[in-house]
Amino acid sequence: MTPKIALYGLPGAGKSTLAHLLVEEATSRGWNSSVVKIAEPLYDIQRYVYERAGLPLQDAYQQDGMLLNVLGENLKRINPNALIDDIAQRVADLDLDHIPICDDMRGDAAPKLANLGFTLVQVTAPDQLRRQRKQKRADLTAGDDKHVTEVPVSRDPDYQIVNDGDLDKLRAQASYLIERVAR
């Protein structure tokens, strides 16, 4: 069975950075891998909203956190499984030897991704460093860390990564994790 990895943690913990390092580590071993986002449909809708407002986004994953919170809340109101069903289909459409790495798992998705075979990895960082990183991001607006769409994960992680700001250390942890999960 092809490994799947889902990262979770507070904004600024380093989930996206770790995801890209995991892809690099997998690639260096000759394995196919890519980042898949649960929120992909929300980013699609966000792009549409900005285009309709006459302000197209420069980056497909630039975040208007307030808008993404509202979109996520309402999409889940309409269909609580919409985001999970979407990522499940996108992962199923990947080649069998492809390692998907999700960098935006939220608490309510944990049991569903675990059932899809994802290894759940909690990424943490010292709070002051995490807050500094979050402030430096080019978000259009900050999302609310306490918003209903930011439900904490209630199950223990399969692995935990502490990202204290040392990129070499994080890369070593990515190497270790990809080796462990790919066995």
UniProtKB/TrEMBL annotation:
Q: Where is the composition biased (Basic and acidic residues)?
A: 137-150
Question: Which UniProt keywords are listed?
Answer: Plasmid
Give the superkingdom in one word: Bacteria
Q: Record's Gene3D superfamilies?
A: P-loop containing nucleotide triphosphate hydrolases (3.40.50.300)
Region feature (Disordered): 131-150
What is the protein's given name? AAA family ATPase
